[in-house]
Amino acid sequence: MVKLSENGQYLLQPQGDVIALTSQALLDILSTSSWFKELPDYLITKIIELSTIKYHEDGDIIHYQGDASQGLYAVLSGSVKVSSISADGKECVFRYLSPGSWFGEIGMLDKSARTHDARTINKTMLLALSSKDVQTLLNMYPIFYKFLALLLCRVVRNAFTMLNDTTLLSVSARLAKRLISLADSYGEPHDKGILIGLYLTQDDMATIINATRQTINKRLVDWQKLGWIDAKYGKILIMNPEALKQLYMDE
Q: Cα(37)–Cα(31) distance, rounded to whole angstroms?
């Protein structure tokens, strides 16, 4: 965990490998969020001044559901899975967070416990503001309450969209829509299309869209035969995004 150095670089040294991130590169990542870009310049400056960078290995727990809310975070690299697990071990995946995404705002507003688990997918860097630093920002600049509320509104809107999709769209349409969304957030150029840069099991996909693994398997096999996707070893290559989009646009 490090602060911004005088020469404008964050320096991390996990397992002997130094990773340098200039302040401009940091701002470029954070500015992929329209929410962050709408912040006043003085707030952006203070956030960067107070923040630290944390390095996580694949599978690290950032916080569990029910933990005390200890900070506000932004993903700089890698990914974070936000989910909850029932008493019988069934996982419900709420969302995957890509670079530029912020999370933790609920606990910063109501001071209550975490609503979900947050776990890293792949090696991940996070920008972190402690709850104390967030309170400092709120005391200095009360308008930050408005921006935290706007960040929360985005989460609520996303939740309503997921609820609507579950209620109104078929399984095929929900799966196609989520694959396109993941491709937009994590897509990597491939000579045959767009590779989703996440390891996704069929169980993962099933929990995301509230379906069974068997149903997911059937859809993926069918779409692979049609040449729309290629799914192997937890990686999904989108080869015909227009065909997938048509599935949910027609409903």
A: 5
